[in-house]
Amino acid sequence: MLGEKVQIMHHLTGQPNIVELKGTYEDKHSVHLVMELCAGGELFDRILAKGHYTERGAASLLRTIVQIVHTCHSMGVIHRDLKPENFLLLNKDENSPLKATDFGLSVFYKQGEQFKDIVGSAYYIAPEVLKRRYGPEVDIWSIGVMLYILLCGVPPFWAESEHGIFNAILCGHVEFTSDPWPSLSTGAKDLVRKMLNSDPKQRLTAIQVLSHPWIREDGEAPDTPLDNAVLDRLKQFRAMNKFKKVALRADADGNGTIDYDEFITATMHLNRMDREEHLYTAFQYLDKDHSGYITIEELQQALREFGMNDGRDIEEIISEVDADNDGRIDYDEFVAMMRKGNPEAAQNPKKRRDVFV
C-alpha cells in the first residue's frame, strides 16, 4: 500500500492543486514521506473563518475540486477518500491555491477495471463501494456529498450509527425540502442530484460536472450570501468530526493508534460488543486522570498530542458534546456523540434515517 502511494504521488507530482511529494527517506523503523507544506489550514476552516459565502463561492471551490479529480482520472488514478479534510490551503493568503492531499487509499486503474475493497470515510462513501463493485465514479459521488454539505451545512446521508449512514447511502434518498434548500437555486439542486445519482453509469463524469451551467466560471450560481444557519451547522459538523478523530486516535494497546477512517469502515463488520470495547478504550485514554470525565484540559492535551491543537476547537467540541452543560464530558455523553451520524440528529427526530442492518 505504501509503495503504491509513493508511486501515485510521484506520478501526480507537478500537477496543479495536488500536494507534492518532495522526497522519501527510510530508516531502520520507518519510511518518511516529506510532503509539500500547506500552512493555510483545511478548506472548511477557511470558510468558517471568513464568516460568509455564496452559491457562487461554493461553485468556485467545487470547480477547483472537480478539476483536480479530472486530472487524477485522466492520469489513471482514483482518490477513493475525497472529503473536506483532504483539501488544504497552500498558505494563509486570501487567494491561496487549494491542494488535494492524502492519497493513502488511492489506486491506479485502467478503463473498465472494478474494485471490491471497502475504503473511504463513512459520510462520503458511494453506494457501489458498499456493494463491492466500483470504479472512478466514486470520486464524483464524494464531491457531490461535499457540495451538499457546502450548501446546507450537514451531510445528505446520516443516522444515529455508522450502520444507519451506510443504509441511508444505499437507500439513496437526497432531501431537498428543509431549509435552506427551498431558497437555493434550481441549478445547485440539479447538480447535486446528478452527482449523487445512485447509478454510477448515470452519474456525471468530471468533465460533465465542469460543463454544468451552475459550476461554470460565468455560470448561473447566484452571488447571494447563504443563510448564517448554514455556517452554524457547518461549524457543528466540523467540531463533532474533530472530536471523533481525537477519540478514535486513542492508543488501544500501546502498539499504535486507532485510525479514524479504518475504524469507521471496520464498524460495518464489528458487533455491538466490539464497538463498545473500542469506545471504552478511547474514553479511558482521553480521561487522563481517570475521574470519569473528559475535561477541557484533557481535551487540549489530546489535541496537542495528535497535532490538532487549535484553541477555537475546544469550546466548539465541548458545547456540542456536553449535554448537561457542566463543562466536561462523561462516558454517556461520549458514547452518544460517537454513535451519532450528525450533531442535529438528536434534535430533529423527523429527519432521522437510522435503518439498521
Automatic annotation (TrEMBL):
Protein kinase domain segment(s): 1-215
Keyword Iron: no
SUPFAM superfamilies noted in UniProt: EF-hand (SSF47473), Protein kinase-like (PK-like) (SSF56112)
Domain EF-hand: 238-273, 274-309, 313-344
Keywords for this protein: ATP-binding, Calcium, Kinase, Nucleotide-binding, Serine/threonine-protein kinase, Transferase
Highest taxon above the source species: Eukaryota
Cited InterPro entries: CDPK_Ser/Thr_kinases, EF-hand-dom_pair, EF_Hand_1_Ca_BS, EF_hand_dom, Kinase-like_dom_sf, Prot_kinase_dom, Ser/Thr_kinase_AS
Keyword Nucleotide-binding: yes
Gene Ontology molecular function terms on file: ATP binding; calcium ion binding; protein serine/threonine kinase activity
The family this protein is said to belong to: Belongs to the protein kinase superfamily. CAMK Ser/Thr protein kinase family. CaMK subfamily.
Protein name per its UniProtKB record: Calcium-dependent protein kinase 34
Organism listed in the record: Actinidia rufa
